Amino acid sequence: QVQLVESGGGLVQAGGSLRLSCAASGSIFRINYMGWYRQAPGKQRELVATITWGGSTNYADSMKGRFTISNDNAKNTVYLQMGSLKPEDTAVYYCKLGVTTRDYYPLNYWGKGTLVTVSS
Predict the structure, then answer these.
(1) Which long-range contacts (CB under 8 A, 24 or more apart) does 73-77 make?
(2) What digits encode the pLDDT tens for the residues 70-118?
């Protein structure tokens, strides 16, 4: 019933920039937050950044100053602007959606992921 469509991944050189997008659609009662996580080869999935629909943001320490998360409430969309990219940023980036159901139960959804490759 709920779909997350990610876009914007690709191949860039070190020092370059990319903007990721994730649009949520379907039967959504209320969005609590959306965010981005990433998983590099041989490593566990880690937090990149989240943003609540109330406007609060949270970043992993290694992303601060380089990445910026934002949202468009009307379009149920979250963005991740990535700058000063490093080879270490190479990973599959996953969109996460947190919603509240009609009976006020929290529920999470994950996108399929979009690949970001940073060459040196």
Answers:
(1) 73/31, 75/23, 76/23, 76/24, 76/25, 76/28, 76/31, 77/21, 77/22, 77/23, 77/24
(2) 999 999 999 999 999 999 999 999 999 999 988 899 999 999 999 999 9
